[in-house]
Amino acid sequence: MNLDFLKALGLADHNQGIAIGGNWSDGAGKTISSHSPADGRCIGTVNLATEADYHKVIEAAQKDFSAWRNMPAPKRGEIVRQIGEAFRKHKDDLGALVSYEMGKSLQEGLGEVQEMIDIADFAVGLSRQLHGLTMHSERPSHRMYEQWHPLGVVGIISAFNFPVAVWSWNAFLAWVCGDVCIWKPSEKTPLSAIACQKIAAEVFEANQVPAGVSGLIIGDAEIGKLMAADQRIPLVSATGSSRMGKSVGAAVGARLGKSLLELGGNNAMIISPNADLNIAIVGALFGAVGTCGQRCTSTRRLIVHESMLEEVKAKLSSAYGQLKIGNPLDESNHVGPLIDQDAVNTYLKAIQQAKEEGAEVIIDGKVLEGDQYSSGCYVQPAVFLVQNDYKIVQQETFAPILYLISYSTLEEAIHIQNDVPQGLSSAIMTLNMREAEQFLSVNGSDCGIANVNIGTSGAEIGGAFGGEKETGGGRESGSDAWKVYMRRQTNTINYGSDLPLAQGIKFDL
């Protein structure tokens, strides 16, 4: 297999995983290997950071924050624009690396890099729009307004399933806001992070930006715990499981810091009798099997009206039968592997539990065998008819398992949709305006994302991304999500010769 993209991105058999800008060093911890789930090959090794390594990166970030925040925001935006251009130049190579190291299809890998380019474009415009409000004062000759200032060091903890895009959602916005960033990527996908740091660091160096503005730490969960507890990091943005997020949120909250949490999803699509089944089946299929079911927005539950359940089962069986599963770098394949053997074991346990709880098998799951599946990480996407209250259905399983649930009324369908601990993404397929509006109303979906006639998976960078309940409540990317990276300050100016007090209070000397 041609892996020239590794060399093009400056990656070697062994890679340094501690970076302060473009200044690289080895972590003093144990050596880990990154194996591709596509073929089991060791792509490269890296040493994990220790606590001492961590403190060096944080100290550099603190030191260089002052210079960065004093650069005008549009100039910071211009540098982020150049970073976006650098990723444009490296899109093909980086997309291939993301696909090969994580296991998502090449099209999805390239799409993830495109998200980075898009958020850079968004951030450039944002750098000229970090605006506050002006308010009328109740006191004469007074003016009130608000402004926004950078927070300081932003800690970014990202997950393996989107090894580069989620970092960019946070870092590019934080940078134009005047913050400096420390990135702890998943140790399952370290090389993708190292490649991104190299690309961004070259741009920063060319613009003579202090090195501490962009830091990278390849470390395990202990480094994440250090970040969560560190008073020097006013904001920790963490993406991962709800279990991980609860730990991070508790640690950050204990020190009264700010956390942006993007956690688990248990996303459902409702198919109404008024749906266009052609687009509904395509949306459900991609939502369930895209990235091999390892998206936080993956479709986990398909809530189908009882009158069309048999038709949907038949159409799904036909569609699943057309899926091509194999090496993600082969563009003819629809589905790649799970990330590793742990994920495969979780998939198998979920299938077993679903059956034990009474699930009806529509399409059974299994680990695929053969030379093309030699890594042991390729699985058959599965479909089961279940009840929503099954314990396994209430959980998020990061695997291509789709649960079918029938309903009789729209009110029942919405109740089923909402009756899980998570609240990230949701969708309804219907051509009936009243059904669509009910789904989007205050009595409808309780998720952060609610779609009509598109699936649960995938989001545009222009809208704020995030969810409610055990999804954590955070918002990233577009709209006014930038405000989480800044602190709000209300200002009052008295330009008169008297000092009237608020609320009409008199205090005469």
UniProtKB/TrEMBL annotation:
Q: Which residues form the Aldehyde dehydrogenase domain?
A: 24-490
Q: Which UniProt keywords apply?
A: NAD, Oxidoreductase
PROSITE patterns in the record, alphabetically? ALDEHYDE_DEHYDR_GLU (PS00687)
Tell me where on the tree of life, at the top rank, the source sits.
Bacteria
Q: What is its EC number?
A: 1.2.1.3
Q: Does the keyword ATP-binding apply?
A: no
> What Pfam families would the database entry show?
Aldedh
Q: Which residues does UniProt mark as catalytic? A: E262
By its UniProt entry, which InterPro entries does this protein fall under?
Ald_DH/histidinol_DH (IPR016161), Ald_DH_C (IPR016163), Ald_DH_CS_GLU (IPR029510), Ald_DH_N (IPR016162), Aldehyde_DH_dom (IPR015590), ALDH7A1-like (IPR044638)
Q: How does it assemble?
A: Homotetramer.
Q: Which family does it belong to?
A: Belongs to the aldehyde dehydrogenase family.
Protein name per Swiss-Prot or TrEMBL: aldehyde dehydrogenase (NAD(+))
Native source organism of the sequence: Persicobacter psychrovividus
